[in-house]
């Protein structure tokens, strides 16, 4: 069902003395507009269906292969939408700036080259060398910052303040999140019906984009590494909180705090938040390679890991879609 054709979702009236939740900052209308804007610049990624017994699962699932998107991840959807939207007002002479563990930076660099803009990307020292090289291959200037993603974001923020460059934040931006939501809109055209969407969560922009599109028409399950779980921590606490970050997927799923834009959507439309171990993630990577010959980075295999390890158990007959969202890793870490 297209959420734009469904009846508006009505939240139950709050109990006396309880404030209603603020409305989501990203809506289906915004995502539909984003889709029209970015369609000429992104790939329509394929879906493959597995049979019971494949990938270590007793049931079949549909895999949405966002790892086949330009630059190897879904990130170009949000990057193109942010830049194209900003271009209507004019891109600063200083160009674009972003912080990234790798995938967002590659997406911004790719979009900047395609659209004719300068880009500078700040990456943490924990980002794999191959991801830094990937960003540079698209013509962006790469700055390596000691620390983790949030340290790189602080440096990018300082650069934006000093130069006036356009900051393209990976998840704390309504235009970026609306762009990421175009995947769910595309998925709705490709599958007649499904019940549940499993999505890996870092800072929350990708998960929120999908949830903002499907709203209450589908179940959305967030999957995070147990070592980096800002969404689950926020849901548990009922507010945004800082978490520690580590683990095999920290370069792509290693945000210390869920984004406020994402939180405005998550608390309305994300139904469940589960976590998986590094071993679960590595095993899911290996299964995708052994059975489908797909090289998925740790973050890209995290959603599948939840099904394989039992962190999420579908009901009988439940139709599940798993997003395989990234491929940017050294293949030898998966195939050897």
TrEMBL record:
Pfam entry (one): PALP
Xref: InterPro entries: Ser/Thr_Dehydratase, TrpB-like_PALP, TrpB-like_PALP_sf
UniProt keyword annotation of Lyase present: yes
Keyword Flavoprotein listed: no
Biological process terms in GO annotation: isoleucine biosynthetic process; L-serine catabolic process; L-threonine catabolic process
Cofactor(s) the protein needs: pyridoxal 5'-phosphate
Span of domain Tryptophan synthase beta chain-like PALP: 38-326
Gene Ontology MF terms: L-serine ammonia-lyase activity; threonine deaminase activity
Family, per entry: Belongs to the serine/threonine dehydratase family.
NCBIfam families: PRK08246.1 (NF006094)
PANTHER family noted in UniProt: L-THREONINE DEHYDRATASE CATABOLIC TDCB, THREONINE DEHYDRATASE, MITOCHONDRIAL-RELATED
Protein name stated in the entry: Unannotated protein
